[in-house]
Backbone:
């Protein structure tokens, strides 16, 4: 079983013993929201930003928080502290809670909070050597159908894209929006480097990534950056491509649909931003041991 610990509605359990009701609407219908958060050197990176996004996701689907956001933060810090991990991954989930087999959310009388604290490694050593990707046939769900800023428990759109990549032996999938503009990877935002400028699609069709914004902030004093739409021809003629996300961190893409990007190796801008990112996340954040005097940095 995975290492770590799991909080469920006020109690802490080893991973093998954590349980929710089979009638929970989070399980039955994906009716809930979540965040992915990392901690490094016993400090949780951008906890406040993750909590603000989680609260916003819940608000967008009319999901009441099970407790005030400060108490959710405290539960997350305590779970990470009890995990005994120094570096780890935290997955807080708010579900609609137990209801019945109908869709009506009113049948769920109280939302639930689950906090999983464990470890995650999405790409292993390919963080440094580069990932292969495909352009997925499945398109990103349009904003008119589902607000992309809801980080919901229903990730079927993303899973279908990832399954396409798996079937073709690729590491990642890149989703296009309904108008064939590049949206995002299966669980990451995407960046293109071209002529020394860093490009990122607007977040009108994909999740507002906290790692994405961190990279834009790190880049702004060193590289010109542009947030604008682009299609696959722009992507395939890039000098560099990389993806960002809490789980995936910062990872280069060096091959798309069997076509090498530039020389097929991670580029200097990607490598520089990787270095800056890892220096930042390993030196700042909210302490998981708040009583040791370190606090937040």
Residues:
């Amino acid at each position: 079983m995975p290492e770590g610990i799991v909080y469920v509605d006020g109690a802490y359990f080893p991973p093998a013993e954590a349980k929710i009701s089979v009638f929970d609407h989070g399980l039955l219908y994906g009716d809930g929201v979540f965040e992915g958060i990392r901690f490094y050197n016993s400090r949780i990176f951008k906890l406040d930003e993750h909590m603000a996004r989680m609260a916003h996701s819940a608000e967008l689907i009319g999901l009441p928080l099970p407790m005030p956001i400060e108490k959710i933060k405290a539960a997350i810090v305590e779970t990470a502290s009890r995990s005994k991990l120094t570096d780890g991954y935290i997955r807080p989930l708010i579900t609609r809670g137990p209801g019945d087999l109908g869709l009506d959310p009113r049948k769920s009388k109280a939302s639930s909070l689950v906090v999983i604290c464990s470890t995650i490694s999405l790409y292993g050593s390919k963080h440094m050597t580069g990932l292969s990707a495909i352009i997925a046939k499945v398109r990103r769900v349009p904003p008119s159908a589902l607000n992309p800023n809801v980080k919901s428990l229903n990730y079927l759109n993303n899973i279908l894209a990832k399954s396409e990549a798996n079937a073709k032996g690729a590491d990642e999938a890149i989703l296009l929006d309904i108008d064939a503009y590049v949206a995002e990877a299966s669980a990451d935002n995407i960046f293109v480097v071209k002529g020394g400028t860093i490009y990122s699609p607007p977040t009108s069709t994909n999740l507002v990534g906290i790692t994405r914004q961190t990279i834009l902030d790190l880049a702004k004093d060193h590289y010109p950056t542009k947030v604008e739409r682009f299609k696959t021809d722009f992507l395939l003629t890039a000098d560099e491509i990389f993806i960002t996300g809490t789980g995936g961190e910062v990872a280069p893409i060096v091959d798309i649909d069997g076509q090498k990007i530039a020389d097929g190796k991670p580029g200097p801008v990607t490598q520089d931003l990787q270095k800056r990112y890892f220096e930042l996340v390993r030196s700042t954040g909210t302490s998981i041991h708040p009583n040791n005097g370190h606090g937040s940095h």
In short: Helices lie at 25-29, 47-60, 69-82, 126-129, 156-167, 210-219, 232-236, 268-281.
